[in-house]
Amino acid sequence: MSQQALAEAAGVSRQTIANIERGSYAPSVYLALRIARTLALTVETLFPINADEGDPQ
User: Fold this and answer.
1) Residue 33: band (very low, low, confident or very high) from pLDDT cuts 50, 70, 90
2) Strand, helix or coil at 25?
3) What contacts 17, CB < 8 A, 6 or more positions away?
């Protein structure tokens, strides 16, 4: 799925999706759920938490 198609399905801009992919933007829980549902994945699969990275702020 393209960034544009995912953005349209999630109701955000393509740039928002690009920023999430780069790790420069942390989506809200609601947006993370919409993206996961669109891709038929779990939020945990899309946004794994690495214990070595600490708390993303």
Assistant:
1) very high
2) coil
3) 3, 6, 7, 10, 35
Segment 30-53 shows an average pLDDT of 89
C-alpha–C-alpha distance, residues 7 and 1, integer Å: 10
Domain assignments of the chain as residue spans, ordered by start: 3-41
Which stretches within the chain are classed as H helix? 3-10, 14-22, 29-39, 43-46
Phi first, then psi: give them for residue 27, nearest 5 degrees: -70, 160
C-alpha span between 5 and 50 (Å, rounded): 28
Q: What tokens does 17 get?
A: 């999706």
CA separation for the pair 5, 13 (Å, rounded): 10
Q: How confident is the model at residue 50 (pLDDT cuts 50, 70, 90)?
A: confident
